[in-house]
Amino acid sequence: MARLTRYSKFESELDELDSGELMQMIQETLLGQGMNDPYDPDPNARPSMDDLFDAILNALAEKGMIPEEMLAEAMQAGDIQDTPLGQQIQKMMDKLQQDGFIRKEFEDGEGGGTGQAGEAKFNLTDKSIDFLGYKSLRDLMGGMGRSSAGAHETRDYSSGIDMMGELKSYEFGDTLNLDTTATLSNVISKGLENMDESDLVIRQSEYSSSAATVVLLDCSHSMILYGEDRFTPAKQVALALAHLIRTQYPGDTVKFVLFHDSAEEVPISKLAQAQIGPYHTNTAGGLRLAQQLLKRENKDMKQIVMITDGKPSALTLPDGRIYKNAYGLDPYVLGATLREVAQCRRSGIQVNTFMLARDAELVGFVRRVAEMTRGKAYFTTPHNIGQYVLMDYMSNKTKLVN
Question: Residue 89 belongs to what domain range?
Fold first, then answer.
């Protein structure tokens, strides 16, 4: 009879690990490329429960939460899932499902039975997306401080009800938000009988703009080449921005577009598990789709936040075919891309570009885009892009359009 070993202390420690802590431990894997094969012909393929099992196993091992003898026993077994360690991880996966962080689904044709983990895929739920967005926002903000909730500062003021602005003399048409101290001072110095309209002092309120944003995420193959994963930090920024807008700027909207050989809108629920591919960079297609989405929005400010690391190298032709040239800045592709940039300018859409590379040709292209749309150009790294994007969003200012 085989020796029965009990690991009560080990099991107790893992039983105390709640789903939120577990999600925090595996968030980089959930957002990264590890859940899917980047060369998979279907970039939208859902990861399997086996992938989730491996992610939890690796996270526990990296954190040193598995006793050496327990890990050694599991690694020597024919099937780790049949060992005490595997059973404990299965319990943790079940808890993630029970607590609403994942939704287990079977592939078409496999029925709705229970089966083994390898027979099922999983999706992240809205609760997971919200959790990952919150965690990403908290991590990226760090000690930067927070903006006041619910408003973008603008260069103009309205004499509304928000008593936070500068003092000014009353003018006809202003809301009478009197600053009592300053007005009484005028009364005392001039006398009530000598007062006129200009001696009434009001406090201006800051005009609160509403913004519609489309985040353009480059998911061409260069975003994971050269030993650096640039796509995962870009997704983290996008999730953090979505959480910031939902919680601090509820009047704003944000949508997401992936661009590669072509471009498509991706819902926030699918963003976390979006993968790299195909290969080229159809910037014009991304800008065109972003403009279509922004045309539907009735907001004071419309902007595109483009996160990329490559030059435009693809173009959708009128007949639907994709023209590609990965060598240098192709004049045909560049011309079409700049025409879309010019259309953004005519539509009053600002394009802020966050470039993850510093190639000389790219620097010139990005600066030209910024100049054409009165936008901004940032040359960042995967390590600091989050701070740049979030601080730019919160400090973005616009004039009131009458």
Answer: 8-124
Same-domain pairing of 273 and 358: yes
144 within a domain of the structure (yes/no): no
Do 61 and 38 fall into the same domain? yes
Close Cβ partners of 185 (under 8 Å, ≥ 6 residues apart):
none
pTM: 0.72
Give me the tens of pLDDT residue by residue for the chain, a chain 402 residues long: 334 444 444 555 677 788 989 998 988 888 876 565 544 545 556 788 888 998 999 899 888 888 888 888 888 887 888 888 888 999 999 999 999 999 888 765 444 444 444 468 888 898 999 998 888 887 776 644 433 333 443 434 333 333 344 666 766 555 556 666 677 777 677 776 676 767 777 665 554 578 999 999 999 988 888 778 899 999 999 999 999 888 888 889 999 999 999 999 999 988 988 888 778 999 999 999 999 999 999 988 899 999 999 889 999 999 999 999 988 889 999 999 999 999 999 999 999 999 988 888 888 899 999 999 989 899 888 888 888 888 888 776 433 332
Instruction: Supply the CATH number for residue 229's domain.
Output: 3.40.50.410
| Of the candidates 263, 307, 312, the residue with the CA atom closest to the CA atom of residue 286 | 263
Residue 56 C-beta-side C-alpha neighbours within 13 Å? 28
- Give the chain's domain count: 3
Residue found under tokens 């789903």 = 19
